[in-house]
Specification:
With 306 residues, the protein is α+β, with helices and mostly antiparallel strands. The chain has three domains: 64 residues, no CATH class; 101 residues, Tetrahydropterin Synthase, Chain A; 69 residues, no CATH class. Helix content is 61%, strand content 20%. Strands 6, 7, 8 and 9 form a four-stranded antiparallel sheet that branches. The longest helix has 80 residues.
């Protein structure tokens, strides 16, 4: 009985041992992660998200890989531009792991490899640019570095999503010169704005004077037009009187001095002193002489009767 009891205890221990081993070899891979499994020292498979059972002793988890997008901020790197200006530039690289197997076996210390590759690529690109181009071409530099890194890290199971130049720090004397240049540029723009404002003001004043002169000229023109219209109306009146006088003389007997005198008086009354402002035709002048003769004869006959 005692021996049988020992057997039960041993069996229980063995069962408990196997349960512990099985439980310890049950693995759950979380979301956005992958486990690289080796069997007897060689790559066996990659576990995706879910529940997995590892064979004890034979299998082992070689690497736990995160599939999330990762961000690495590399320290400033000294670079020299084409015009021999030394600057400190630090970069930020955004990447994600697309193939856990290549990431595990492709390169030793992948992050260090990316950092060194980023530094050398940055030096090559900045070495072809001058200082001003470097400061104004961040997007172009970012794209060039990203393309080169993405091609180089593809064999490592890494995809470089984007690269950003975080800071560009030129030497202090260069910064002082840039600040002075910026200040001079702002002063120049201020002077230009003042000159444009003064020019606009003078233009507005000139336009106002021009409009005032035009209005005055229009007023003088209107006045002259009205005066001319008045003169024209007076001329028409005189011409009408002339026509009436001629008509009366033609209709009356030429020998009748009374009618001729009345015609002359009607002509003078209609003219109202404006007859001197028109050119009298030759026939009107002849008629005026004729009327004057009639007036003299009529005066003589009147004196004889008296």
């Amino acid at each position: 009985m005692v021996f049988f009891g020992y057997q039960l205890i041993i069996i229980g221990i063995i069962i408990l041992f196997f349960l512990i081993v099985i439980i310890r070899n049950i693995k759950i891979v979380p979301q956005a992660h992958a486990y690289v499994i080796e069997r007897l020292g060689a790559y066996h498979k990659t576990w995706d998200t879910g529940l997995h059972l590892k064979v004890p002793i034979i299998d082992r988890i070689s690497k736990r890989v995160s599939l999330k997008e990762q961000v690495v901020d590399f320290p400033p790197q000294p670079v020299i531009t084409r015009d021999n200006v030394t600057m400190q530039i630090d970069t930020v690289v955004y990447f994600e792991i697309t193939d856990p197997k290549l990431y595990t076996y492709g390169v030793e210390r992948p992050l260090s490899a990316i950092e060194n590759l980023t530094a050398t690529t940055l030096r090559n690109i900045i070495g072809d640019l001058e200082l001003d181009s470097t400061l104004t071409s961040r997007d172009t530099i970012n794209d060039k570095i990203r393309i080169i890194l993405d091609e180089a890290t593809d064999a490592w199971g890494i995809k470089v999503i984007r690269v950003e130049l975080k800071n560009i720090l030129p030497p202090r004397e260069i910064q002082d010169a840039m600040e002075k240049q910026m200040k001079a540029e702002r002063e120049r723009r201020a002077r230009i704005l003042d000159a444009e404002g003064e020019k606009r003001s003078q233009i507005l004043v000139a336009e106002g004077m021009k409009e005032s002169a035009i209005l005055k000229a229009d007023a003088v023109k209107e006045q002259k037009i009205r005066e001319a219209q008045g003169e024209a109306e007076a001329i028409l009146t005189v011409q009408k009187a002339n026509a009436d006088a001629i008509r009366m003389l033609n209709e009356s007997a030429p020998s009748d001095p009374v009618i001729a005198l009345r015609s002359l008086e009607a002509f003078a009354k209609a003219a109202d002193g404006k007859a001197t402002k028109i050119i009298i035709p030759s026939e009107i002048q002849n008629m005026a002489g004729y009327v004057s003769s009639l007036k003299a004869i009529w005066s003589d006959e009147k004196s004889n009767k008296e």
